[in-house]
Amino acid sequence: MFKFAPLGKVMNRTLDREVKLAVTGLRRSGKTVFITSLVHQLLHGLNSTHLPFFEVVNSGHLRGSKIMPQPNLHIPAFPYHHAIAQLCHEYPNWPQATDGLSEIQLAIRYQSQGLLAKSLSSSSTLYLDIIDYPGEWLLDLPLLNWTYEQWSAHITQLCQTEPRYSLSEEWRNYLSTLAVNEGDIDPLQRDQFIRQGSQLYTAFLHCCKEDKYGLSLLQPGRFTMPGELKDTTLLEFYPTLSLPAAPIKVNSIYAEMKKRYDSYKEQVVQKFYRQHFASFDRQIVLVDVLKALNTSYASYEDMREAINLVLHSFQYGKSGFLNKLFGLKIDGLLFATTKADHVTPNQLPNLERFLQTMLAKSYNNVSFEGVKTTTLALASIKSTQSAYTTFQGQRFSCIKGVPLDGDKPVALFPGEVPYEGLLPEGWIDGRFNFISFKPPRLSDSHSSGLPHIRMDRALEFLLGDKF
Ligand SMILES: Nc1nc2c(ncn2[C@@H]2O[C@H](COP(=O)(O)OP(=O)(O)OP(=O)(O)O)[C@@H](O)[C@H]2O)c(=O)[nH]1
Ligand SMILES: [Mg+2]
Fold this sequence. Notes:
It is globular, with a radius of gyration of 24 Å. It has helices at residues 7-14, 31-43, 55-58, 80-87, 115-120, 135-138, 148-158, 164-167, 169-175, 187-209, 221-224, 253-277, 289-295, 297-311, 321-326, 348-358, 360-368, 455-463; strands spanning 18-25, 62-67, 102-111, 123-132, 282-287, 332-337, 372-377, 385-391, 394-401, 410-412. The protein folds into 3 domains: 7-135 and 276-380 and 441-466, Rossmann fold (3-Layer(aba) Sandwich), CATH 3.40.50; 141-272, no CATH class; 385-426, no CATH class. It contains 18 helices and 10 strands. The model is unreliable at 320-326 (pLDDT under 50). Helix 9 packs antiparallel against helix 10 (187-209). The chain is of the alpha/beta class. The longest helix is centred in the middle third of the chain and has 25 residues, at 253-277. Bound molecules: guanosine-5'-triphosphate and magnesium ion. Residues 31-32, 97-98, 132 line the site of magnesium ion. Magnesium ion binds at residues 31-32, 97-98, 132.
């Protein structure tokens, strides 16, 4: 069924005057910081010196940008001003982890190009829509393709290897005490069993999320970041580790959990997907490659699988005229490794190459659909300076910044990023130790865009052809 949007909106989309940008990334990958920086760069675009590779700015065609009134009154505004206030504070801070949905619309006014455009009006406006959400919720998208049985089989497989095997022990032990296909059971008692199991399963997910394990593939996403669904029965179910023999008894724990899984998919995931994810036309996938390298091989593999799974859920393809009217498809995708200011500039090619190898499967699938893709190492907000140091007569490249857990700047060589993908046998624990930094102290952030690495190239790739 087609849903008809208001005529003005349809015309904006059809005439390429509106872009919906999907900022995709697992938790803590840098989505909120990226959106904050992007908005700041555009609002300060008239001072063109900080965006040399963003053509509309560099050519002097930008007329200015503005944050528009909230397009959907039921969705909170993206907390841009709050994030900027935190960054510009005497003791600057990064934004908090996102715990709900928010959105922002920017109007970007520019001088129209081409004879026809010039004769119609001298300036045009491009509307840019972006939503922000907790990275945890992204992991729900793959559930749309899975039945309860398929999802259970997937989790069962994951729990056979470490660290999940040990971390899930309590929950697995509890499961082994239950008769999940018992039909003759009091519904109140059944619900109590389910509640207890889902509490243990949620505790297991929280352990997986801890920094020392750094696992990404944590489903359902709302279990560790419930938002407005906190304490609701919608979040009371868990996968089963062994499928009961048919027939499934009507009132059993198994039948009830299958029903709740389907309700979760329909009422939470599908709704979220339909309202916010089904109609993007450009996408940036932010990946914190350095975090994956820091933790363990299991964490790296898990992140890789999680991102590849998530990317499978989006619709890719050329955005022809009809697609524009009746639901867009993503026709441009930027794979970006964030926090490139955590390494020395000479490591940026390695970062990009490593990301390409890590996501080779998705890269291939998306490119096959005719989608324009590229890879970029970027820092939304650059919090280090590159410097040189001499040791035993040799000159070394290093970076200087204030570590996240310190209060004084340090100069260090953070190490090399591997050029190719990694194999488990080649993995040495503790080999990588890329440290995180505090945001820079910004003296007068309002006169120019926030310091960054390659945000201008990202903007050019994502929006450049729309001007
Ligand atoms: N140095 C540096 N650190 C960054 C940058 N972007 C993000 N970070 C770090 O990464 C952390 C997470 O960034 P966020 O933007 O909050 O991540 P997110 O993807 O929105 O995370 P969720 O809201 O949990 O999904 C920040 O608190 C910073 O420590 C960057 O450009 N440079
Ligand atoms: Mg966030």
